[in-house]
Design brief:
The protein is mainly α. The chain is 81% helix and 0% strand.
Length: 127
Amino acid sequence: MHRSFLFYAAAAAGLGVALGAFGAHGLKSTLTEAQMATYRTAVDYQMWHALGLGLVGLWAERHPGLKLLRWAGGLMLAGILLFSGSLYLLSLGGGHWLGLITPFGGTAFLAAWLVLAIAALRRSGNP
């Protein structure tokens, strides 16, 4: 599972760089300031959580039996898809109903970090 998380982390980060560049150069003249801010938020959260997913993948490589890491990685991936994905679509003029999806992605992010913290506490006694 750790290799999958490392793959998804690299793919999400690479895609984040590409989408960030596309937004900065290709969309700057077509989006409103508010839409551009939403787009940047999507890129920022995608990049931070791609790094987080990479951390989970590296940690899972050292502790493959720690099921909490699978949960944390899955939640981060879901958060990237739901949170950043819905914000990308919203900023590009997608239906306002997409705003209903965004909080589910944010909740997945929060849950991922909480699960990761619990995993850290459980592992703190074992090097």
